[in-house]
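Long-time lurker. I teach an intro course on protein structure, and each term I like to show students one example going from raw sequence to a predicted 3D structure in token notation. This year I'd like something fresh instead of my usual example. Would anyone be willing to generate the tokens for the chain below so I can use it in lecture? Attribution to the forum is fine with me.
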Amino acid sequence: MPIRTRAAALAALTVTALAVGAAATAPAGAAPGEAAQKQASAQRKAAAPRFLAASELPPHPTGWTAGPVTDGFPEQLAYCLGEGVPAHDHRHRLFHTELDTSAAQVTVVTGSAAKGEALAARLNREIRTCADRLERTYPEIEAEGRFFGTLPAEEGATVHGLHTETSYGATDVHLLSVGRDGRTVTVVGWGQMGDFDDAPLAAFGKTAKKAVTKLH
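-- Reply from a regular --
Happy to contribute to a lecture. Here you go:
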């Protein structure tokens, strides 16, 4: 039985067109407004955080398939973060295998490095308290959270684990990381049936580190 909570309200991505100086930099024959739009689009593309590729996830016998980068916060991470994530312009990518293993990455660019630091701290707190909140919300679930330490990647990354077992015997294990590069924060989640012994902790650590170092 999937564990879900209501996801936080999602803000739509907004774009500010660059109009000042557009006429001066417009190529010959191009309308000023068109040139400004092209310049703004190029700057957004250059500044947008990059996401993990399927090949950068922990190895899996069937391989991984990566979905497109999509606006919004993924419900696949809402079981721990859905109620505690502030409304930001989130973007995410989902990954799946041919079996029961799945993964998700969500990234947000905040207004400043200080705001990014505060958001990363809040996300870490939400994950650390996730097991207790799940047990309070779902009496049929027993949950255990573990903290696996930090990783040296830009402004740092943390790795957490979560194991859940239902009263009817279903067990799932999740690994989650929170990382930051300046004002950009990213969360990676991995999950499958099983317990902590089944979790590829070392490989996930490499994935979590890569998720941060390739953002910009």
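Some talking points for your students: Confidence is low (pLDDT under 50) at residues 1-28, 41-46. Residues 7 and 177 are 19 Å apart (CA to CA).
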